[in-house]
Design brief:
The structure holds 2 protein chains of 2 kinds. Chain A is α/β, with parallel strands linked by helices. Chain A has a single domain, classed as Thiamin diphosphate (ThDP)-binding fold, Pyr/PP domains (Rossmann fold). Chain A has 12 helices and 12 strands. An 8-stranded mixed β-sheet of chain A has the order 2-1-3-4-8-7-12-9, sandwiched between helices. Chain A has a two-stranded antiparallel sheet with strand order 5-6. Chain A has a two-stranded antiparallel sheet with strand order 10-11. Chain A starts with 36 loop residues before the first helix and ends with a helix. Chain B starts with a strand and ends in a 15-residue tail after the last helix. The chains are: A alpha/beta, B alpha/beta. Chains A and B meet through strand 2, helix 3, helix 5, helix 10 and helix 11 of A and strand 9, helix 7, strand 11, helix 9 and helix 10 of B.
Chain lengths: 350, 611
């Protein structure tokens, strides 16, 4: 793109704890199609980071290839970003995270990137419980190559050219829970009320946080008969709950009757909406979460909200017992054992 | 066969998984401790238990460390391979076998000596535990060799004590087995044989170690903190060595790790992790073999184009495809140098000894960061997994890591707009920043797509071309920084050129001596890196005929020389070996002599790599 966003900002824009306005969290102008669900997700990420007062430069954004993977350019312009190789974002994020455990890692991927070419890496980054936020912008089709069905397209869904998808869909959220992801949420790009708090909870989650966000493709998959169109998703959505996981400060306790919904004010002033919890629903119970997803699927519903969370599992750094100092900040004298040791090593080979 | 001292080959024929490796190593290490140059080679199948495996030990007073054909003494404890093993013994040589069972008459042949030793019978009588019997049977033949070859028995005992430090019963059992072998030979055979060992002091400070261990240690010294890898023969022991040394030398006082090792789900992920970690300012590396290089190719192209440092150790094996996973070759040169699509090329480092494995691994991190590009260290199974006599590892106390052009927060304050891909210094190398350096300056987007000097996405052909041309300028800088070739000039104007690298070095050096004996003067050059420096160009230009020695079918190094320096292909004569066994000096000489004088050729005319 040859044009830039206007630099002007209103002097009375609200500021967060760091004194930053939303502006400091924005990126370049999007080159995606007008109305693309992905842009709404980018905007939600901007909002979530602003509200959590995260230092933008202490975030690393990593993606694979595809429309979704282009989005890291469109948020957090003061963060380093890495648009890597198709389906391989998880490995790049793993390496980056190993090098510096102190940054916030945003991995952005799509349904082609994660559910097809990158399925192996998706599975294994979950297994390792890498401390990162993994967002799949899921539109059920390949946008950049003009609308082919992806592996998350629902069976029977009609694509723009009118053909019906004969294959079963891969349900990334169910799969993530099954594989042991320590935080799994599902949302809809058109529902920022739900998406922003989920993103915030994901950022604060001390391990692998997976967000599967249904994000309609306005150009290639927003037609009647598609199960990833705006209209279809709005009609079939069923929220479970959202739950905040801000660690540290006093726990925020809320009380509400089953079947009711409530709003909770967060430590930093933002608000989180907690929808009703079904009586048999426990987001810390994997069986319960998987059952609910399967039941919703049978009813053609898309279950959104926080589906599962477990903060007890060790993230990869704790598993590997790495030092608290980021590895990329270790000094030469901490890394090189020196000549005396080398002489001992030599002696052991004589 | 008349009274040769310290010049012979012993081969052990064993069954995989029977604990023979440590007994065989005990033999080789004893020769080493006796101060005599020795080259052990493990010839093993892709199998955990049951298939034939061989261990070949060349003893060479003259210090020739390459392999040579011809076996003087064969210790055969594997009935499966016996028929072939009998035939492999040199005329006049010795065949030691387990005579617990009578030797099949089919295995008798004229011209060699048979020395039967009832190893299993003695082991069964002396030891109760069936597993121990199996293991100690191997020590019995070491005892027999001790007597037959006049080995220093006190050294053998000392090595056993070192190996089983503190485990008295094991030491005693091993000593007992050793004595059984010694006593049996004393009672039944004449000793020593016509060839034998004699103590020397030829090794000085030298060490006996394999290349993979040296690479693992080099990575620790080179400051690598992240290793990601996927198991593959013959590179796995690089990861194991790195981990072992890290556990010894990279713990904090509180017992935490100043390193992170991730066993990846495949080689693609391993390289992705290495690139992610290097991008984020940690020195990171992986080790693999040919099939892994194929899988890593896409990522290598990304790292080349996005200019992210990466270190890859490729311990080559015989390809293509799965090839011969446990056999050696130098056949990944082209795949590694040009890994990935588009106009891509990579730095190769070509170590020949464990010491160079150590040094070049450490140096590869400097080069990768200085040049912001992948560096591929090409070793092979022979160097990586076999023990080699090597100069000891050295480390200059004044040495500092060269972290390349990385801007700090203060430096970012001092400059205007940061241009990630600007060639500010004219050497083609731009400046980079690590994530998290500065709140508002220095952030940029890394991508495999085309971009302008400020890292902004662009499909402008002119900007793309400017970037590619800058990468070419950087490639010129690379040539000045990579290790120089080693050249030896004979002072004879008619000398032929001999060009070699990596594990072809030992046999090439030996071949030089053999050719000199034949009256053929040789100038030699040992390539240590790609791209080639000016000294390589000069050498090629100043010789009419250059024999290019390498261990692959397609003469890959020769092709690279032709590609890089526009020389006449005819002046570069391929000398090849690609049967999966390390190249021998005889093979090199034969091919050269045949080329120089095709009429004179006969296999018998050349003296055996002798003596």
């Amino acid at each position: 793109m040859s044009y830039l966003k206007p630099l002007f900002s209103h002097p009375k824009l609200p500021k967060n704890k760091l004194g930053y306005t939303l502006k400091e969290y924005e990126g370049s102008l999007s080159t995606l199609c007008a109305g693309c669900g992905h842009d709404s997700i980018s905007a939600a990420i901007v909002r979530a980071c602003f509200e959590l007062s995260i230092e933008p430069h202490l975030v690393a954004k990593i993606s694979g290839i595809g429309c979704s993977s282009k989005t890291p350019t469109y948020f957090l312009g003061n963060s380093h970003g890495f648009n890597s190789v198709h389906g391989r974002m998880p490995s790049v994020a793993t390496g980056a995270n190993m090098a510096n455990r102190d940054l916030v890692y945003f991995g952005v991927s799509g349904d082609g990137d994660s559910a097809s070419i990158g399925m192996g890496q998706f599975v294994h980054v979950i297994r390792r419980n890498l401390n990162m936020v993994y967002v799949v912008m899921n539109n059920g089709c390949y946008g950049l190559t003009k609308g082919q069905d992806s592996a998350t397209a629902d069976q029977g869904s009609k694509n723009k050219s009118g053909s019906i998808n004969p294959f079963q869909a891969i349900d990334l959220a169910s799969m993530a829970i099954e594989l042991g992801a320590s935080f799994v949420a599902q949302s809809f790009s058109g529902d920022k009320q739900q998406l922003i708090p989920l993103l915030k909870a994901a950022i604060k989650h001390p391990g692998f946080a997976f967000l599967n966000v249904i994000s309609p493709c306005v150009t290639f998959n927003n037609n009647p008969g598609s199960t990833k169109s705006y209209d279809y998703v709005r009609e079939h959505i069923d929220a479970t709950s959202a739950k905040d996981l801000v660690p540290g400060k006093n726990e925020i306790k809320i009380k509400y009757e089953a079947g009711m919904s409530t709003q909770v004010e967060m430590h930093d002033g933002s608000e989180i909406q907690l929808n009703k919890l079904a009586l048999d629903w426990d987001p810390e119970d994997r069986n319960s979460a998987v059952n609910a997803l399967q039941k919703a699927r049978a009813k053609d519903e898309i279950l959104t909200g926080l589906l599962y969370a477990n903060t007890d599992w060790n993230d990869l750094h704790r598993t590997l017992k790495t030092t608290k100092t980021p590895l990329n900040q270790l000094k030469e004298n901490e890394l090189c054992p020196g000549i005396k040791v080398l002489n001992q090593v030599n002696a052991s080979f004589r | 066969m008349n009274n040769r001292i310290n010049d012979f080959i012993v081969r052990f024929a064993n069954v995989n998984g029977t604990g023979s490796a440590s007994a065989n190593f005990l033999f080789a290490k004893t020769v080493f401790r006796m101060g005599i140059p020795v080259t052990p080679k493990n010839i093993f199948p892709s199998n955990i238990q049951g298939l034939p495996t061989w261990y070949e030990v060349r003893v060479s007073e003259k210090g020739y460390l390459g392999r040579r054909e011809g076996i003087d003494l064969l210790v055969c404890v594997n009935p499966q391979s016996m028929a072939k093993d009998v035939l492999s013994v040199n005329e006049g040589g010795y065949f030691i076998f387990d005579s617990t069972k009578k030797l099949n008459p089919e295995y008798r042949r004229e011209g060699i000596h048979y020395l039967g030793i009832p190893m299993m019978e003695m082991a069964n009588a002396a030891f109760d535990d069936p597993r121990k019997r199996q293991l100690l049977k191997n020590i019995i033949y070491v005892g027999a060799l001790a007597k037959l070859l006049a080995m220093d028995e006190s050294i053998i005992r000392q090595l056993i004590e070192e190996q089983f430090e503190g485990k008295k019963s094991l030491i005693e059992a091993n000593f007992k087995a050793l004595s059984l072998g010694i006593d049996y030979v004393e009672k039944h055979y004449e000793y020593p044989l016509s060839f034998k060992l004699e103590k020397r002091e030829l090794l000085g400070e030298k060490i006996l170690v394999d290349g993979n261990t040296a690479c693992g240690l080099g990575a620790v010294y080179g400051g690598a903190t992240v290793m990601a890898w996927y198991p593959i023969t013959p590179s796995t022991s690089v990861a194991e060595a790195y981990e072992n040394f890290c556990k010894q030398f990279r713990k904090t006082e509180g017992g935490e790790n100043n390193f992170a090792i991730v066993q990846a789900e495949d080689e693609l992920a391993a390289m992705g992790m290495v690139i992610g970690a290097n991008w984020n300012g940690a020195r990171a590396f992986t080790a693999t073999s040919g099939p892994g290089v194929s899988l890593m190719s896409e990522f290598l192209g990304l790292a080349y184009f996005a200019e992210v440092p990466a270190v890859l150790i490729d311990v080559q094996r015989a390809g293509p495809s799965t090839g011969m996973p446990t056999r050696t070759q130098q056949s990944d040169l082209l795949a590694a140098a040009f890994a990935s699509h588009g106009d891509t090329k990579h730095i190769l480092l070509l170590p020949a000894t464990p010491k160079e494995c150590f040094e070049m691994t450490a140096e590869s991190f400097d080069l990768a960061e200085q040049l912001q590009t992948p560096v591929i260290l090409l070793t092979d199974l022979d160097l990586g997994m076999n023990d080699h006599v090597s100069e000891p590892f050295e480390w200059d106390v004044k040495r500092k890591y060269k972290r390349g052009k990385v801007l700090t927060a203060e430096e970012l304050e001092g400059i205007g707009k940061f241009g990630r891909y600007l060639d500010s210094d004219g050497d083609g190398i731009p400046y980079r920043t690590y994530p998290g350096t500065h709140p508002t300056k220095g952030a940029f987007f890394t991508r495999g797509t085309s971009k302008d000097e400020y890292a902004a996405y662009t499909e402008d052909g002119a900007a793309y071309k400017r970037n590619m041309d800058r990468l070419t300028r950087k490639w010129e800088t690379v040539k000045k920084l990579v290790p120089k070739a080693e050249i030896s000039i004979s002072s004879k104007p008619e000398a032929i050129g001999l060009l070699f690298f990596g594990t072809s070095t030992f046999s090439s050096e030996e071949a030089k001596d053999l050719l000199n004996e034949e009256g053929i003067a040789v100038d030699s050059i040992r390539i240590r890196a790609f791209p080639f420096g000016k000294e390589v160009v000069d050498f090629v230009e100043s010789h009419a005929t250059i024999f290019v020695v390498e261990q692959n079918r397609d003469a890959q190094m020769r092709k690279m020389l032709i590609m890089e320096m526009d020389c006449l292909p005819k002046k570069l004569v391929p000398v090849l070996n690609y049967d999966g066994m390390p190249i021998t000096a005889d093979a090199i000489c034969q091919q050269i002599v045949q080329y120089l004088n095709p009429k004179r050729l006969s296999n018998h005319e050349l003296s055996k790599t002798a003596v």
